[in-house]
Design brief:
By secondary structure, the protein is an alpha/beta fold. The protein has a single domain, classed as Rossmann fold (3-Layer(aba) Sandwich), CATH 3.40.50. It is built from four helices and nine strands; from the N terminus they run E-H-E-H-E-E-E-H-E-E-E-E-H. It has helices at residues 16-33, 49-58, 109-119, 178-182, and strands spanning 9-14, 40-45, 64-72, 83-87, 97-105, 125-133, 146-150, 156-157, 173-176. The strands form two sheets. It has a six-stranded mixed β-sheet, sandwiched between helices. It has a three-stranded antiparallel β-sheet with strand order 1-9-8. Strand 5, helix 3 (109-119) and strand 6 form a beta-alpha-beta unit. The longest helix is centred in the first third of the chain and has 18 residues, at 16-33. The structure holds inosinic acid and magnesium ion (MG). Inosinic acid (IMP) binds next to strand 5, helix 3 and strand 8.
Amino acid sequence: MEHILDKDVERVLFSEEQLRARVAEIAAEIDRDYAGKEPLLVSVLRGSFVFMADLVRQIHLPCTVDFMAVSSYGAGTSSSGQVKIVKDLSEQIEGRDLIVVEDILDSGNTLSYLLQLLQARKPASVRLCTLLDKPSRRVKPVELHYSGFTIPDYFVVGYGLDYDEKYRNLPYIGVLKPSVYEDR
Ligand code: IMP
Ligand code: MG
């Protein structure tokens, strides 16, 4: 650790090396599962941008990328299930094989809404790929095809994940000190 933001991190959960190795494994699974196809990877902004960038560079198939931004109403460390599309896809997805790339699956509120919305546009297939999964927090069931790591109910930051829009630039994933959000 050598970042000014490190002082707010209780401990490192996944180092850069661990992340790199696991992302390569997920990419290899995608290469195998989509052989002969040309998947469209949809990154859900903003949290998944780092994972997405690393993942696509480990995928060897021809693929395309697109981005979507959603915001979940409600502040703090949990989402409400009320989802708003802030930026829609640029591509038509009818008949495409979609892989939705997320940073973390928590309550499932955001993803279950988003997957429903994408299904209505008649893609050939939709799979969900998340770097982190917090199953103990699930409120809405979501079918998950690719998952990097399952974690307990910690609030984590780094590698794209934020607290109050900060910490996204940390190269590792760490547990945020509760004092950071309890003090506010
Ligand atoms: P869900 O709708 O509750 O599944 O929330 C998913 C979104 O909440 C993620 O895409 C993240 O933006 C955010 N989120 C959930 N847990 C964490 C966390 O531990 N750290 C940072 N962001 C989180
Ligand atoms: Mg997010």
